[in-house]
From TrEMBL:
<dbReference type="GO" id="GO:0006012">
    <property type="term" value="P:galactose metabolic process"/>
</dbReference>
<dbReference type="Pfam" id="PF00288">
    <property type="entry name" value="GHMP_kinases_N"/>
</dbReference>
<keyword id="KW-0732">Signal</keyword>
<feature type="domain" description="GHMP kinase C-terminal">
    <location>
        <begin position="440"/>
        <end position="520"/>
    </location>
</feature>
<keyword id="KW-0479">Metal-binding</keyword>
<dbReference type="GO" id="GO:0005524">
    <property type="term" value="F:ATP binding"/>
</dbReference>
<dbReference type="InterPro" id="IPR006204">
    <property type="entry name" value="GHMP_kinase_N_dom"/>
</dbReference>
<keyword id="KW-0547">Nucleotide-binding</keyword>
<dbReference type="Pfam" id="PF08544">
    <property type="entry name" value="GHMP_kinases_C"/>
</dbReference>
<keyword id="KW-0808">Transferase</keyword>
<feature type="domain" description="GHMP kinase N-terminal">
    <location>
        <begin position="238"/>
        <end position="325"/>
    </location>
</feature>
<dbReference type="InterPro" id="IPR036554">
    <property type="entry name" value="GHMP_kinase_C_sf"/>
</dbReference>
<feature type="domain" description="Galactokinase N-terminal">
    <location>
        <begin position="124"/>
        <end position="160"/>
    </location>
</feature>
<dbReference type="GO" id="GO:0005829">
    <property type="term" value="C:cytosol"/>
</dbReference>
<keyword id="KW-0067">ATP-binding</keyword>
<dbReference type="InterPro" id="IPR020568">
    <property type="entry name" value="Ribosomal_Su5_D2-typ_SF"/>
</dbReference>
<dbReference type="InterPro" id="IPR000705">
    <property type="entry name" value="Galactokinase"/>
</dbReference>
Amino acid sequence: MIRLHSLLLLGAVLLLFSITSATFAEAFLAQPQLNTSTNIVPRKIGGGAKTKTDTTKTTRLFLSSIADKEKNKPPATASSMESKIETAKTLFEKYFDKDENDFDSENATTGKTTGTTTGTTTSTRAIAVAPGRVNLIGEHTDYTGGFVLPFAIDYSTVVYGKGNVNVNLGDNDHDHDERKAKLSFVSSLSPDSLEVLECVESSSPPESTPTDCDCDWTTYVLGTVFQYLPDLPPGAELALQFSITGDVPLGSGLSSSASLEVAVARFVEAVLGEHAFSSEQQQQQQRQGEGFGAFSPAKTRALRCQKAENEWCNSPCGIMDQAIISAATGDSLVLIDCRTLDFTATKMAEESLSPEDPFPVLVVANSNVKHSIGGGEYPIRVAQCKVATEALQKLNPDIADLRDATPEDVENAKEFMVDDVSYKRAKHVATENERTLRAKEELERGDWNEVGALMSASHASMRDDYEVSCEEVDILVEIAQNFPGVYGSRLTGGGFGGCTVTLVAQDNAEDLMAHMESEYKSKTGIDCPCFVTRPARGAHLLSIVDHKPLVQE
């Protein structure tokens, strides 16, 4: 009976997530609904069916205006921040008022909103930046409350725009209480199409069915803004005008979707000013009781962006991407406890533990094989973890999630597993958590050989136990692991394509990248852009005046 219950549970969950939805990357690359007219009817979300703008043009899209659009090949190096800002500013001024008189000098520098508690506040103009990310180790553990060790990278999304909070605009009692948002925005991926959207506090995520999930890239934007409506005073309207640009490669496992969400969120927070997180701070005591500790903008931002992706885009992602993009410090990796959202900065040792081991750098290689986490295999893994957890709970009721299980627990519960697949999924999660905690310690000690061994073991587990790798990625990892000076290499990100991350002696990095590009092309016929990366800063605001980062958050 218990076995039957588990099978039914798995079937129900798989049915729920069997939606063949367009991912963020796929929506960018083949968005079918574009409007090139300036006479646009807003899409209204909530209280009825969603009305889309008329389709006047179908275009193949890519986030970076600098990318090779014909081949859909991301840039080998991150674009300069100035070039991204200039692209965003030019695009903004193409559609929106260039008059800057409503921005006082304080707003232009600090991004804080001024004004009274009633009427229309002074507009705030802001530049928000959110990076992509690479996960060194700790894969497919975040949605089971486990440990991850990611860092932010120089590739990023930039949001440039202005907005204000209009207070007490309702003409009747219902309107007086209803919080709402109006968005007008344009992206460098579609510079001739202006998106105009609306949502109210009572809005629901777009409805979807197992055969038709309407989640274009604009839904990531709208879903994120929606999370901030509770911060508004009753009856207030959040009015936003902005442009979006960036260079995070799409569908590559570097978190292009989370980068977009967090950039939009940070921009909204700048416009909200003192209103930002007001509803969350009122619930601070409850959050502490749930183990989340004191209120933190970075934690709250991450949770809101994750909720937007889970509920509005049908993607059962964990918290890792949004958390590291929100909280990265710029000079270290971050060990994240995905249950409590505790962040522990983790710096690589300044010297090698052994004088014989050259100091390493991190190389990312893009397989150019795209993946989807909105449907297909990723949500299946989420469901399989739930079934495996049920089996473990038969032996130990204190195991609330796979994060609580040791490798020994998994072995002891093997006979209770529904099938060998559930056992393999649980085995990966339990061993990956142990590898992640050890990798943090060895990074700080400077034992690069041990870190590399853990990375390679992680890839083997991803390939054999979690089964989220693919032939092309395995080829990349094998090429790297057999090259002189390489300590370890593995798949990074959700899998089913995407990127690899390799720890390699600094003096060997350039030769490794050239070798990977040529060998991968020879074996697969696919280009493989590579780049050396290092920890970068998380989401932040830039000064409108000189484009320098504002005060550290």
